[in-house]
Amino acid sequence: MIKRLFILGLIFLAAVSLCACQQPKKAGPESRRYQSRMAKEEKRDKMTNHITLKLKNQTISLELEDNQATRTLVDKLSQGDIKISLSDYGGFEKVGDLPFSLPTSDTQQTAKASDVMLYQGDKLVIFYGSNSWSYTKLGHISGYSGKELQQILGQGKVTLSLSLKD
């Protein structure tokens, strides 16, 4: 009987020892890729809640909405600055063609002065007045009235540079 208990005890100790020596499981490549992608997205989201608009000698910050259009725009800007030629339209906005299309999530809304909208997926619109239409909101320029923004934008064509840099 003592011999059996001794053998059982040895088996138990051997099993515990073998389990303790087992290497911890490492995350597989799938989970490492997922974690890396999530870390990059989190870093991008923290760093890019705004972009810089450069116009003549003015630098303006655009506070971005959180949507697929702005995430795609930020991805495009990570490859370099984007220049757009803006023109007056309707006495309440400047509009310019983007060199690419962005995803849309258009809703009927009233744009107000300092709102920046996406129209038809490939046009950037900066409002210095208001208008009701179906847009995807890209963001808002804080700290400027409609009149101030209209003065900064000026009359006629103007070149706007979009950038991730301040």
TrEMBL record:
<dbReference type="Pfam" id="PF18050">
    <property type="entry name" value="Cyclophil_like2"/>
</dbReference>
<dbReference type="InterPro" id="IPR041183">
    <property type="entry name" value="Cyclophilin-like"/>
</dbReference>
<dbReference type="InterPro" id="IPR029000">
    <property type="entry name" value="Cyclophilin-like_dom_sf"/>
</dbReference>
<keyword id="KW-0449">Lipoprotein</keyword>
<keyword id="KW-0732">Signal</keyword>
<protein>
    <submittedName>
        <fullName>Lipoprotein</fullName>
    </submittedName>
</protein>
<feature type="domain" description="Cyclophilin-like">
    <location>
        <begin position="54"/>
        <end position="162"/>
    </location>
</feature>
<feature type="signal peptide">
    <location>
        <begin position="1"/>
        <end position="20"/>
    </location>
</feature>
